[in-house]
Amino acid sequence: MRVLILHLLFLVTGATGLVYEVIWTRMLGHVVGNTTQAIGLVLAAFMAGLALGSLALGRWADRRTDPLKVYALLELGIGACALAIPGTFELLLDGYAALHAGFSGHAGLIGAARFVVAFLVLVVPTFLMGATLPVLARYAVREKGAVGGRLGTLYGINTLGAMAGAWASGFVLMRAFGISGAGHVAVALNAAVAVCALLLHRVSEPVPVHQPWRPDPQDPRPDPDAPPQDPAFRPGYVWLYGLSGMVALALEVLWTKSLSFFLGNTTQAFATMLSTFLFGLSLGAFAVSRVVDRMAAPARAVGTCLVAIGAAGLLTLPLFGAIMNRTGMPGTATGFLVAALVMLPATLFMGAMLPLTARLYVGHGHAVSGRVGRMVAVNTAGAILGSVLAAFATIPLFGIHGSILAMCALSVLAGSVVLLRERGNRLATAAQCAVALGLLAFFVLTAHERFFSVLHYTFREGFRDEVESLYYNETSAGIVEVTREDAGFMSYKIDGQNQAKTSVMGLRVHNLLSQLGLLLHPHPKKVLMVALGGGMTAGGAVPFDPLYDLDTLDVVEISPAIVEVAAQFKDYNHDVLSFPKLRVTVEDGRNFMLTAGDRYDVIVTGVIHPKHNAGNAGMYGSEYYNLVKRRLAPGGVVVQWTPLNGVREAEFKRILATFVDAFPHTTLWFSQNFGGFARGNNNLMVVGSLEPLPLDFAAIAGKMAHPSVRAAMGAYGVHGPVQLLDAFVTDADGIRAYVNGAPVLRDDHNPLEFLPQEEHAPAVLATLLSVRQPVAPRLVNAPPAALEQMARRYALSDMLLRADLAADTRRFGAALGLYGHALRDFGGAEVARAAGEVRFLADDWLKRREAAFAAAPASPQACARLGEALVELERWGHAVETLERCLALSATVDVYLNLGRAHYGAQHFDQAIRVWTHATQVAPKRHEPHFNMGLAAERQGHYDAALEHYAAAAERAPEDAAVLARYGKILVRQGRMEEAMRVAMHVNAIDPAEPWAADVARQVAAMQRRAGPARP
Questions:
Q1: pLDDT of residue 208
Q2: Using DSSP, how many helices (H) and how many strands (E) does the chain show?
Q3: What's the start-to-end Cα distance of the chain, in Å?
Q4: How far is 32 from 25, CA to CA, in rounded Å?
Q5: Which terminus of the chain faces fewer neighbouring Cβ atoms within 10 Å, N or C?
Q6: Phi-psi bin for 33: left (phi > 0), alpha (psi -120 to 50), beta?
Q7: How far apart are CA 280 and CA 163, in angstroms?
Q8: Chain Cα centroid distance, residue 438
Q9: Which residues contact 185 (CB under 8 A, 6 or more apart)?
Q10: Strands of 757-897, DSSP E
Q11: Per-residue pLDDT tens over the stretch 440-498
């Protein structure tokens, strides 16, 4: 029972350790930056504390007779430090900023400052954490013949707890309680472990100092590999354990980079990969712990494990291709399966190294804690070296693919040397080494120069049009690639995620991000861009230099490889890298805001999706905006890209609420890319300032008339102030009404990075259209003719926005109808182009459904989807023919509904009613058949029948405003005004924007006013 309790306590210790590692790394990332190098240095500082604690306190623990009491005090100390760490950050913040400023331009010194800050923050708690295994080893290991098994079991249990902590941090704790809340949960667990350990100490006998070894009663046989006169048996093998730690951490970094290409860079993706890695270590330790103390040749097993680690690591390379040649992004369960396929084979052998090394190194001396401490310290030092090598050396030199080969080669070669040195079956050893070395040679010789290029894989729908890879670089920040599509567009990607594209939509979004702020500021001189991307956002400022004579254009970019990418886009970004006033700083944008000394007239945060990478969400939090305000000059303007794609309405509202809370004078803008090729209206921009920012029509028109500005904006289809200003959505008051008290986002609890990317853009866009306001009443210095143009433009854009929203939800019939009205009422090349794009999308949608049905003519689903498309595109005759075939395959209610719509569209009203009558028999609770029969009866002039059908539909859908409105209208037509009024009041309560109900409500209010106050 005591052993079981001890194991449970150490399981919890492992969990809390990983919770602390995750949350402290996150907190330090907010201070020292989220670059790969910065995070690597933070983790190095974390592991350095572990190594020091393991080494120093391990030797000290050998002189203690109360290891459980020491363990309890360690847990209490860890919890106390965890409570103090947030305050420590505040104390070190100003000092770090000063050091960073003093070391400006010296990357090595800045890296050293980051390491020192992280080490000072983490050294005490990690020092205590590092001692827990050596201290418990002092209590748990009593018999000579059980050293490997006992230590392996302790390590496996602790690592299993670490796996649980990694999973809980990413999927539960930080999402539910925030960073500080997750830390408080871990502190409470530390305290609980300490109390239990003290209670266990009270009922346990003291452990004598230098207790002599006694044989294991279950296995009295002596160890054949351990001469009694040699207590330091195979001491050199501890260094092989250090080598395995280096290879393990390097491969973890490299696998994480590789799997990010498929699983993504989100917090939960990292939690998935880390917990899977730790699970493999735990399983390997458990498996070998059961047999290690009975092994006749544990040294050969070490060599076998090293060879197997390298061989399994090599086999992950073809596995990446198999994984990424599947369509669709994985869910949580699939993500764990994918990570397990890649990581588990090698990590099983990595985990086996501890019990084997313990058998060879710890099991032949009396100072158990000291030897365990040295062993763990050497392994941790190797892990530090591996993670630093991967981030700073091997990836820049060899790329991710080449680095995996290098680490696997090192492991295979080291294992082969061990096997060849040890006694055993020479033929079997030679065969084993030959297979591993042959495998290594094969993968080295067949290594592909662009292993992770999106051209090789079909795992994402959008990349099937890519035809050429123009630039490719496997960097520590990710896999960076520039490609060309068959339509001629260039695009650049990080880990397979599109970042910028040279389509009209891409050019407009990126250029407007910089140019909107430059137009609204009276006379900017200093401009800061966060995120270079393809250089198009920063390049958008270049044409304004002849107008303003800019002092500086500062750009902060997190990866040097992306600076190289901008050179590929020089024909689209005004060759911004050659702009003499450009200053590029390779740094995390948030860290730059913290440490920079300049102040800027315009600050632009570029296209950084809050859910694409861990840490991105912090660029949408109040703490980031506070840093931005520190860098904003008086009268300055802040612009930030704001996505609709991949966020829910509640999340989008929180983004806006946070921005308007920081910048009280805020406006919201569309990019207004009509047509729908790239869903351009899903790109919005918020423009904020600390002082009122007037929309001066005359000033904006004058700036846009400058030749260089006019040419630059005309290149992406914005030809004057009327068109530009019509992109306005609403002002600060409108935003506050829209967000309706939504809470602001903060570093401590930012749900954007934990919630999945879900496609709610059409629904969110629909709500935005309902709050969109004309910009004309907010303009100053606008002549009457311009106001008339603004009104006409607003009517056109409202129609096109709604048309594109319909197309986005596959309601192509409605979309094409609206475009037809726009062409008739307004005309113009812009409308014609957009209408052509929507027609193309509609035809392509139909072609894909026709192809799917042709490939599977017996599939009811493929048939029904084709019939739905034909109905939507008003191909009535073909739709009737297809849907009749669908009925023979599967007579579902949806097939009946669409077949009725096809007959209705062809004006075969009686046939439509007959079909919908069948639908009521198949699904008697559905309201649509009754509603549709009401429409058909009304078209035929059978109003009594229409009323009956509408009443049946309203009974089945009492909260559907559209159904109730139609029912109310027919009641009015039939003269049943009192009932119509009741229906109208109910509709108005459900949807105040419903026109008929709102009109009835106004009529009722007017009648009440004319009637005067009611008499008592």
A1: 66
A2: 38, 14
A3: 83
A4: 10
A5: C
A6: left
A7: 9
A8: 39
A9: 19, 173, 177
A10: 779-780
A11: 787 777 677 787 887 776 555 545 567 788 998 888 778 888 988 877 889 888 887 78
Q: What is the rounded distance in angstroms from the CA atom of residue 887 to the CA atom of residue 895?
A: 7
- Residue 265 has what DSSP assignment? B
Residue 494 phi/psi, 5-degree rounding, is: -120, 125
Strand 683-689 with 728-731, pairing = unpaired
The alpha carbon of residue 543 and the mean position of all alpha carbons in its chain are separated, in whole angstroms, by 34
CA gap 400, 408 in Å, rounded: 12
What are the C-alpha distances in Å from 434 to residues 290, 315, 413, 439? Answer: 29, 16, 11, 8
What three-state secondary structure class fits 436? helix
Contacts of 96 (CB under 8 A, 6+ apart): 31, 32, 113, 114, 117, 595
Q: Which helix (H) or strand (E) holds 463?
A: none
How would DSSP label each residue in 711-775?
HHHHTTT--SHHHHHTTEEEEHHHHHHHHTTPPPPBTTB-GGGTSPP---HHHHHHHHHHH---S
Which SS3 state, helix, strand or coil, does residue 194 take? helix
Q: How far apart are CA 132 and CA 58, in angstroms?
A: 9
> How far apart are alpha carbons 313 and 280 in whole angstroms?
13
Contact 82, 20 (CB under 8 A): yes
Q: Which helix (H) or strand (E) holds 28?
A: helix 2-32
Closest CA relative to residue 469, chosen from 487, 447, 492 = 492
Burial class, 396, CB count within 10 angstroms (exposed 0-12 / middle 13-18 / buried 19+) = middle
Helices (H), 290-331: 298-324
pTM attached to this predicted model: 0.86
Digit-coded pLDDT (tens) for 137-186 = 888 776 555 777 888 899 999 999 999 999 999 888 988 898 999 999 99
The letter for the amino acid at 831 is V
User: What's the rounded mean pLDDT across residues 984-1008?
Assistant: 75
Residues 6+ apart with CB under 8 A from 354: 151, 152, 155, 241, 285, 375, 379
DSSP 312: H
Per-residue pLDDT tens over the stretch 363-409 = 655 677 888 889 999 999 999 999 889 888 888 888 888 899 999 99
Residue 933 CB contacts under 8 Å (≥ 6 apart), including other chains: 912, 913, 916, 917, 945, 949
Which burial class, exposed, middle or buried, applies to 907 when counting CB atoms under 10 A from its CB (0-12, 13-18, 19+)?
exposed
Using alpha carbons only, how large is the chain's radius of gyration in Å? 34
Quote the percentage of the chain above a pLDDT of 70. Answer: 90
- 525 against 393, higher pLDDT: 525
Pair of tokens at residue 140? 């748990």
Measured distance CA(147)–CA(362) in Å, rounded: 7
477 phi/psi in degrees, rounded to 5: -85, -10
- 148 bridge partner residues: none
B/e letters for 832-863, b = 16+ CB within 10 Å, e = fewer, are eebbebbbebbeebbeebbeebeeeeebbebb
Task: List C-alpha distances in Å: 86 to 81, 90, 590, 605, 748.
Answer: 9, 7, 19, 27, 11
Handedness of CA 171, 172, 178, 181 (dihedral sign): negative
Angle CA 391–627–753, to nearest 5: 55
Sheet of strand 665-670, all strands in order from the earlier edge strand to the far edge:
582-586, 552-557, 526-530, 600-605, 632-643, 683-689, 665-670, 728-731
pLDDT tier at 324, thresholds 50, 70, 90: low
Token code pair at residue 250: 């390097």
Helix (H) or strand (E) holding 688: strand 683-689
| Amino acid at residue number 681 | N
> Confidence band (pLDDT; 50, 70, 90) for 277?
very high
